[in-house]
Amino acid sequence: MKTLTVSVVTPNGPVLEDEYEMVVCRAESGEIGIMPHHIPIVAPLSIAAVRLKKAGSEDKLAVNGGIMEVSSNKVSILAQSAEKPSDIDVERARKAKERAERRLQSNQDNIDKLRAELALQRAINRLDVSSK
Ligand code: ATP
């Protein structure tokens, strides 16, 4: 069975390093599937789930932006934050979602709206990844 090494690192330290058969992530240019021996690429990532497949099972991570590099049969993801489903505090994400939604409904300037929009995306991504 062909695999590739996946490493996910954030400013808080390593989140995951393991062998997988396929990685699916959302780059800013769209969804990318990486199989073993993929050509080298570097791509900025969106706030989205990274799906890691092996032996009929799938692991997921809630990844908050960052960058993915594929080289020498290794996928390296450097992200602002990345959480496994079991590490996600669902109540915290729900509160963050409500806070962001309240801000978006209020009359604040554009910069605050952008911040709120990104906070909303992070919260929705965490809720999606934590749900079965
Ligand atoms: P909050 O407003 O709840 O802090 P946030 O989206 O602003 O959410 P981030 O700045 O993306 O939070 O992340 C800060 C740190 O907190 C990171 O280490 C991230 O992994 C962690 N984190 C944020 N939200 C959660 C959550 N719901 N469950 C687990 N860890 C979280």
From TrEMBL:
**CDD domains on file:** F1-ATPase_delta
Cell compartment(s), UniProt? Cell membrane
- ATP synthase F1 complex delta/epsilon subunit N-terminal domain boundaries: 4-82
Q: Which residues form the ATP synthase epsilon subunit C-terminal domain?
A: 87-130
| Highest taxon in the source lineage | Bacteria
Q: How does it assemble?
A: F-type ATPases have 2 components, CF(1) - the catalytic core - and CF(0) - the membrane proton channel. CF(1) has five subunits: alpha(3), beta(3), gamma(1), delta(1), epsilon(1). CF(0) has three main subunits: a, b and c.
Known NCBIfam families for this protein?
ATP_synt_epsi, PRK00571.1-3, PRK13446.1
What protein name does the entry list? ATP synthase epsilon chain
* Originating species: Oceanobacillus caeni
